[in-house]
Amino acid sequence: MGVHLVAGRARHLARDWRDATLAVASGIAVAYVFVQLLPQVAEHEDALAAAAGRAPGRNAYVVTLVGVLVYLGVDWASRRTRAGGADGGHAVYVFSMVSYAVFNLLLGYVIGNRSGTDVGSLALFTVAMGVYFYVNDHALALRHSENLYLVGRWVLSAAILGGWLAGLVVEVHAALVGLMVAFLGGGVIVRVIRNEAVGIENLTAFVAGAVGYALLILVTT
């Protein structure tokens, strides 16, 4: 949650330092998606298959695909609205904040619901999501005015806090948790590739972050 409150300040850093930190953070997020998140999506396959009355197979990945398509649609609609000029600028801000807030709400619930997760896996998850928000919020801060972003970061912080509190006190069926994780996986994939892996200014730092975090995941899990 705290990342949302400070991430926009990255644009005030010296350019070389900013590009390096953003590239490392992007590499970490990409590594987590492909080395840790997708295998976790597969772990929910049995619960999803049972709820759907189907044999275990690719049900979780179908939900992940839905997440990819939904957030690609959000990105496409944002671009179309942004092309509308000044009036479209405010509309795309509201649209972006709503989609990001829903994402954060679901993510917060999943975090709060991971009470049985070992400390190592939870730490890897926390670091990866922290740097993901750092890069994503930097992109938001560049796209929107200072005043709009200052309001939006509090909305995003409140959403993830509300989801986390709900995850602590509200227990839902394992299949629904599986749906959330798989859907969020699709959203993270789109945003990682769209906002983070594209336009990298420091390839060395990006590769170092990705390889280093992938090795850390493989060694500690």
Number of strands: 0
Fraction in helix:
over 70%
Q: What portion of the residues fall into strands of 2 or more residues?
A: under 5%
Overall form: globular
Report on the structure:
- The mean pLDDT is 76.
- This protein has nine helices and no strands.
- It is mostly helical and 221 residues long.
- The two termini are 25 Å apart.
- It has one domain.
- Helix 4 packs across helix 8 and helix 5 packs across helix 8.
Which key terms come to mind for this protein?
single chain; 221 residues; mainly alpha; 9 helices; 83% helix
Provide a compact summary of the structure.
With 221 residues, the chain is mostly helical.
Describe the protein's topology.
Layout: H1 2-6, H2 15-43, H3 45-52, H4 59-82, H5 86-112, H6 119-143, H7 146-169, H8 174-197, H9 203-220
Helix pairs in contact: 2-6, 2-8, 2-9, 3-8, 4-5, 4-8, 5-7, 5-8, 6-8
